[in-house]
Amino acid sequence: MIRYTLSRLLSLVLSLIAASVVIFAVIEVIPGDPASYMLGMNAAPETVAALRRDLGLDAGPVARYLGWIGGMLTGDFGTSYTYRVPVAELVQARLGVSLPLTLYALLLSVVIAFPVGLIAASRRGGAADIGIMGVTQLGIAIPNFWFAMLLVLVFSIHLRWFSAGGFPGWDNGFWPNIQALTLPAVALALPQASILARVMRSAVLEVLGQDYIRTARAKGLSRRQTVFRHALRNALIPVLTIIGLQFSFLLAGAIIIENVFFLPGLGRLIFQGITQRDLIVVESVVMLLVFAVILVTFLVDLAYAAVDPRLRKR
Mind telling me which residue stretches traverse the membrane in this protein (predicted)? Predict the structure, then answer.
């Protein structure tokens, strides 16, 4: 288990190094100079040069990259060109919206997908299975931003059960914020729940075809007991993979949903940073999201070893 963990940890570190180089290189080739954008088109060249020196943009790419990475390792993400405040403060404030939204959507996805996938697997070929597969295919096909606008139209404009957007802030209480995050979480969870339900069904059906399952049935166990006692545990490995990827996707891929509902999260911060040429904000937030994706993948690998003891010997 220790060797397995160390090998995955080495892969995590190498992936982070490669990702940081790619992110920095991609951001560097984005057209537009932050200093010129901040001062306007009619700014004097001397003023632009002075601001570039103040922002540290006059240094070479290698020096800027090493300074950026060194700062991130010590918790210093740099200072925003636009807001003139530490990027860490911006990330901390926006993470208070994006992280609860991600966890809320992931919880909804799991709560919906697990029973739906098990029902479809236990009734293979029946009306329930066919209906569930049809609904999940529709859930995958519908774009989440279109579904988000449909939710706003029905539940905000017509029924007036939820607000159409905005975030009151955690200082105003728990339930008002949960209410504000409900529609965005549902919009994010629908396609993920559809994918997870289909994976759950396929994994359970594959396990149910194994010899030891037939042996358990021959010993007198009911189909329900066989599914929950034997099949479910062994079917969790592909399901854990999807759950890990879904968390990463929901955290890093909520830019459109956050803009639809005017949520001040990390996705909206990235969008604002790109439009304002605030390169240090874009670099740092994207790197943070990449770190979250790679870390979740690492934790999923460890979960594999916990579920399947055979992996601990590798």
Answer: 101-121, 142-162, 174-191, 235-257, 285-307
Phi, psi of 163 (to 5 degrees): -75, 155
Residue span of the structural domain in which 237 resides:
90-313
Question: What does R_g of the chain's alpha carbons equal in angstroms?
Answer: 24
Domain count, the chain: 2
Taking only the tens place, the pLDDT of each residue in 89-105 is: 888 888 888 888 888 98
Residues 67 and 98 reside in one and the same domain:
no
Burial 118-129 (b: 16+ CB within 10 A, else e): bbbbbbeeeeeb
Q: What's the one-letter identity of residue 215? A: T
Kindly report the number of other CB atoms within 10 A of residue 58's CB atom: 14
Q: What is the pLDDT of residues 203-228, one digit of tens each?
A: 777 776 666 666 766 666 666 666 66
User: DSSP string of 54-123?
Assistant: HHTTTS-HHHHHHHHHHHHHTT---B-TTT-SBHHHHHHHHHHHHHHHHHHHHHHHHHHHHHHHHHHHHT
CATH number of the domain encompassing residue 103: 1.10.3720.10
What the block records as the tokens of 19 is 């990702």
Reading the block at residue 111, the tokens are 């709560």
pTM score over 0.85:
no
